[in-house]
Amino acid sequence: MKNITVGKLAKYTGINLETVRYYEKIGLLPVPERTESGYRVYDDNDVKRILFINRAKELGFTLKEIKELLNLKIESGKKCGDVKNIAVRKIKNVEKKIEDLIRIKSVLEKLVAQCSNESITTNECPILEAIELN
Amino acid sequence: MKNITVGKLAKYTGINLETVRYYEKIGLLPVPERTESGYRVYDDNDVKRILFINRAKELGFTLKEIKELLNLKIESGKKCGDVKNIAVRKIKNVEKKIEDLIRIKSVLEKLVAQCSNESITTNECPILEAIELN
DNA sequence: ATAAGCACCGTAGTATAGTACGGAGTCAAG
DNA sequence: CTTGACTCCGTACTATACTACGGTGCTTAT
Asked: Whole-number mean pLDDT of chain B?
């Protein structure tokens, strides 16, 4: 998919056209090429990028963090250490999220199981078990 | 921990005192008991609840969704089907999040590995690989 | 018994992340 | 060559989730 307009980009990704401009303004989307008449021109990569942004948001990353994720690339050997450090931090962060989600999932599964054998009543909030106190 | 004040609750959970009142207003925290003079009284369970809210937020749940999660309990046998339906939906949602996070994690790990053998340069955005196009 | 430190309340302000508006120019189908 | 759909832009508005303010009342340590 090459040379698509902002309207199509918005349509393909399910976001608002104005949101595309907004993402451009805050540096989340690269400044696009323009046609002679000044229309923005996008392609595949922009679609991918927005889909990634959409998912990352649902995973609890802020736009600022998403920007950081998207900027994680190794540019001509230099700054490799920085990239590595950030990536390692992000990995830890992601691992913690996965752990918590697994814990939430297992509580939900337990709840469904209890629902199946009708009889049991939980008057306390079972989901609270998903978080460990320290 | 019993009979703690709103200030202590805020301190233990790392949230702002005003946020506690806000959570109460939107029904995310139960209406607490009051002292004779009208002070809110909290305990362990409220601490747990707020810690859960804090984590759930970082996992990309909105306050509305968190409320739904916290209300997932089986009350005296009835409405068990509803609870089950909601829980099953939430499980699917959580599974999708876990999958996406695993994919993001593996991209980040690949990046760190590339960083380690110095030579490779990635000029494109590697994190975009974490989302599959369909 | 008095001052510092909490808590009460409603209301207003802030940050983040969009979303809408409206007047003007552009493109493409008939 | 016009009409309708699309795009441009800046600005302003909205929703969510807090966060601060400020006047008053309560609690507690000296």
From this structure: 90
